[in-house]
Structures are given as C-alpha cells and as structure tokens.
C-alpha cells in the first residue's frame, strides 16, 4: 500500500486561531519552463512566490497565458516545477504524484467519468482511499444534498445538464474532504444567469465546508465578487496580491488597474511629491492631486489613474474640461465619454435614477471634477 | 379532395418506397454475394460426395455425422471423432491465445501512440500499417526464415553458446502462434488506437486527482473507456485467426492443422465436399456463438461499472 497524506480536514471547524494565519499552500520561487521543439522554450511561471491562508477563498486572476492554470496544475501535481518549492502546510509536496496529495480539483471541462453514474463519480475518491462502503454511501448522500442533486443520483453524467454536471464535479472534488480545493475556471462554460447563481453557491460551499479554495479565472468581475484575496498575474509573474478592494482601488501598477475594471489613464509630470501624495501637472496645465507611493520624485513623468465612477461631470469648469462625445446607456448607469481639451478620451460613469436623464447631451462643453481621493499615481 | 392526413400518408408511403429502391443495389450484393453462396454450402453439406470431388444430388446426413463421430470400419458403431475435435480445439485455443497475446502487446503500443503529439502519431500509425504492403505468404515465409533450424533465432542462440544444437521451432504450435500474432497484431492495434485517441486525458488526471494509483486509473478509467476498441480488436483478430490457413500451413507443417487447413483438405485431396461444407458451417457456428457470448459479456461488464 502506498502511503498517502491523510485527506482529512483536521482543523476544528470554525475559529481555530492558531492555524488561521498559517499558510495552507505556499509557493516559494516557483519557475516552470516548457521546452518546445528546438530552441523555443516558454517560461510559464517566473520565480513566483505566494502564500495562501487556510480557509481562504483565493483567486488567481489574469489573462489567458499568464500562468495561472500552470500554477494550479503544479499545486494539483499534474505538472512539476522546473525550480522552486510548493509547500502544503509546511511540507514540500512538489515531488509527490497527484494521488498522494490531499488536494482535489474541479476541472474546467468537469472531466466527469462518462461510464459511471453521478453517485459513482462522487464516491470515486473515497473508494480509492479504501473507505468502507457504508461510509462512502453516507458521504455521497451528504454531498448530493450539499449540491442539491439527490434526485439525479443514479443518472449517467451524460444525461444531466451543464449546470448539473458542474455541481457533480464540485461534489466529487469535495467528497474526500480535501485540505485544499482547486478550481480551474469552473464557471466559464455556464451561461450568465447560471454563472451568477453558481458564484453565490460556491461562496456558500466554501463557507460551509471551511476548505481553502484556490480559484482560477480570467473574469475580473467573478474574482472581485467571490474572493477573499486576489493574486493578479501577467506573463508568468504575480503583480499584486490583495483583497478585492485593494486590487481595485489601490492597484500596484498600470497592468492591474487596466485589467481590473475600467480606468482612465492620464499622463503628466510630477510637480511635487511627499507624504503619500503628489501633485501632477497635465499637458493642458491642469493640476491634480493624487495618492502616490513614496518613490515618486518631483520632475519625473507619471501616469495617473481615475476610476470612471470616482469622477463627476459638472457644468462649467472642473479639474479637467472637454466635450461630450458619446453617451451610452447601461440600465443601471450611464457611461459618458468626454474628449478632453488635451486630446484623450475620459470616461465618467453616472448612476441612473428613474425620473431624470443624465442631464447632458452630445457636444456639451463640460468640466470633470476629480475628488481629493479619486486619483492615484501608478508605476508603469 | 384529399385530406391532409391522406396526403401525409401518401407521402410517407412514397418515402418508404424510395428508401427500399435506394438500398436495392446494396441488398442485392448482400443476397447474391454473401447469403447465396452460404445457402449453397448448407445444401452441399447434406449431399453425397462424388467420386472425383463435386457432389451427387442425393440426400445424406453422413457429412454431419462425421463432423462429430467416426464410424468403425468393422461393426458400424459410432465413436467421437477425436481427430477433428482436436483440430477444432487447437484452432480455438490458438485463436484465443493469439487474441490475448495481440491484446497484451497491442494495448501498450496503442496507448503509446495515442499519447504522442499529433505529427508523431501519424508516423507511428504509418509504421504499424507497413506490413500490409507485403503479401501475407511472403511475410509468413519470412517468419520461417526467422524460426528455421538454421534461421536467425537458432543462429543467435548457438552463437551465444546457449544451446549447441538447434531448438526445434518450426512445425510446432509455438511457430503457428508466433506467426499469427505477428500477422494479426496491426488489426488489434488500430481499433485500440481509434478508441484510445478519443479518450479525454483530463479524465485520467481526474482519476489521479481522486487518489487513484496508476493501476487503478488503468483498471477503472482507461480500460472501461476503451472497451469498444478492445471488443472490435478482439473480434478482428479472433475471427480471421480461427479461419487462418496460410500461417498454420507454412509454419505448422502437416501435423499442426487448423480448421482452415482441414476444410481445404476436404475440398482438395479428400474429395469430400459435403464434409468440407459441414465443417465450414460448424466453424461459422463457433464464431457466431463466440461472438454472441463475447459481445454480451463485455457490454454487461461495462454496464456493471456504471
């Protein structure tokens, strides 16, 4: 018999203070290079280090090809790092095959076994762990109940809908009570309504089971609504790790600000800096105060970011002036694109109300007022 | 005025008629080229053998009796025809052994090919089909060169000093088996590859992820998923090897006959066409029973997994 790490959830349910901050999964200087034919090799992960806490809903977010799935596969054991360590509760698991890791995966395509019923799929992991039959049955029933699928227990997986397959895949991965659950873009195949439902469902499951979730997605909205913390990745590197609020409102660099949400970028020169704030002079001569990291010096070039909902359109003069080019109605809000006097387009988002229109029309000369806290200076 | 229902019924009748018309050529070939000759064989098996081959149109169950029994020359009592039965038994057991051996050799081969990148798969498949370019007879004689007393195997064995006199390989069941495995291996590899190629290898990853060891993944995921390929390959190997004629003739010599050789003998030197016909039908019956048994068994065990 091969020795396995016990896949048992050994933390005491809720509020174990001692283990709450201990990293469940830790990557230390992980590099993965894929060698192609001939000379071309791809660095999918470049010296990545990240610590994922226990009981956390952690999201790896980035465009396709950024290395997020590669990192997930390294944690699952389907692939091995070229360099670096992967620790699970302090133990290096990098050399272990996947069937010896107390980690389970929900695959993007679900990868349900087509020759088994729903119940057999869910019980597969427990069966392989050599659990007694009665325990497997009880656990499968509990899992079916958890994902609201009791009545489809004996169906073949080809006879159920995509959303139901998704639930079975979840139940199958949760049944052996892994310490960490890995989810590889599990919602990408579902339609919009179902995806929204499953987002809430996933949050609930994570809360109820207390299992650490590592979730991979390229959908920034999904990442913001579900995660406790997000790691934003690009070309094999982690650019920023933080809460949804952190990465949205305090992006570390331009890529993060651009990838998550919609952003206006303005370029200018640093006039003065200090105490976490800076004064930026734009080309048009307008001066804007913004929050800034300490390493900005007066005289250098700088990029300024302003979220569309943090700026306000005013009649008359504001911090910036321009002409309205297009007005796009979105139901909940209206996007107004303003051609600034200095040439760039600036977008302002306004909440709609039922009674009044947005109050502006194409071609109006308007001012844009940027609040004290709305602008941030970014590293490029 | 025709009602809508009448119109619909008429259209349906015409539709059925045109379907029959379109399939007529194919049905004709099936009846004339397959069922017709088969019927002749059945009729011949109940006739009396002619003196110089051919048949006399005179009913006689003798051929069928002698498939199973032999009549004592002196007192006309019947006893089991052990000679024919042993040939049947040799045919079935050699064919089964061929099927099992090609499966054991073909499975890893097909798996290896199916897990290569696309462009290498084509090369591998091409290599697998190369033997088909040469005539079966020539390939079998080539096997003879390998197995002969002064052939490659014996030369190497003697050169290495493992034996000082040649080991008798030719004209044994081993030689027939080796020849048939060599000839039929591609017929096993190709259907196995076809069903393995369709496997979503994420299912294999999912198996590993759910604590299944390599052996368990093979047993519970890969084998159930390639069952159609295993069934197809086994049928493709078992049936022709049961009727194999050239390989046992060349490699088995006169003493290791298989059914195919026995049947040929009745139509040739034996000049007993009815017996040949009866033996042919018996062979066909064995194949059909084996097929029925095999297909039913594999589909049931597949169902038991789910």
Automatic annotation (TrEMBL), chain B:
GO terms for cellular component: plasma membrane. Pfam families: BPD_transp_1. Keywords: Cell membrane, Membrane, Transmembrane, Transmembrane helix, Transport. The chain crosses the membrane at residues 20-47, 87-111, 123-142, 174-194, 221-246, 275-295. SUPFAM superfamilies: MetI-like. GO terms for biological process: transmembrane transport. It is found in: Cell membrane. Its main location: membrane. This is Spermidine/putrescine transport system permease protein. InterPro entries: MetI-like (IPR000515), MetI-like_sf (IPR035906). It is a multi-pass membrane protein. PROSITE patterns: ABC_TM1. Residues 88-294 form the ABC transmembrane type-1 domain. Belongs to the binding-protein-dependent transport system permease family. CysTW subfamily. It comes from the Bacteria.
